[in-house]
Amino acid sequence: MREGRQLLSIIDAAYDRRSWHGTNLRGSIRGLTAREAAWRPAPGRHNIWELVVHAAYWKYVALRRLTGAARGSFPLKGSNWFTRGGAVRERPWHDDVALLDAMHQRLRQAVARLSAADLGRTPAGSTVSNVALLSGVAAHDLYHAGQIQLLKRLQRSSRRR
């Protein structure tokens, strides 16, 4: 199934595989400390840590739409945006990065099981096909990878002042 392999390749390039476009989502957070991930450019703005958990949540949503799984099975309470960085400790940061990795792997496994017919279907409760959903997952990862790269640069420039 060539389409499925191609989608997996696109999803992986956006998440953690070498690609022509530069830094992907996983690469954008490589080596960050909890303190760096918790830094905010201004009050009320999201930090890198929150972007990581947000991306994990939306991988879960895509997985749920693909598989028809019930709502409420995400490991954290809440949805979309999760406040992070109040208590800056390494273990919770690494746990949330592990959550992102786990959600990516679960989504990837579900995509690998899809047939060509499944790819063209629009899941119940969705307005887009599985192909559009999954290409959107890749776009979402790259969008937030760019934000993270920008936040890292802003953080470094704020330290120099």
Tell me roughly what share of residues is in helical segments. Answer: 55-70%
Provide the number of structural domains: 1
The average pLDDT score comes to: 93
| Backbone structural class | mainly alpha
Count up the helices.
7
The rounded distance between the terminal residues' Cα atoms is 54 Å
How would a crystallographer describe the biggest sheet? none
Low-confidence blocks of residues: none
Rounded to the nearest angstrom, the radius of gyration is: 16 Å
Can you describe what's shown?
The protein has a single domain (2-160), classed as dinb family like domain (Four Helix Bundle (Hemerythrin (Met), subunit A), Up-down Bundle). The relative contact order is 0.21. With 161 residues, the protein is mainly α. Helix 4 (48-67) packs parallel to helix 5 (90-112) and helix 4 (48-67) runs antiparallel to helix 7 (130-160). It contains seven helices and no strands. The protein starts with a helix and ends with a helix. The longest helix is centred in the C-terminal third of the chain and has 31 residues, at 130-160.
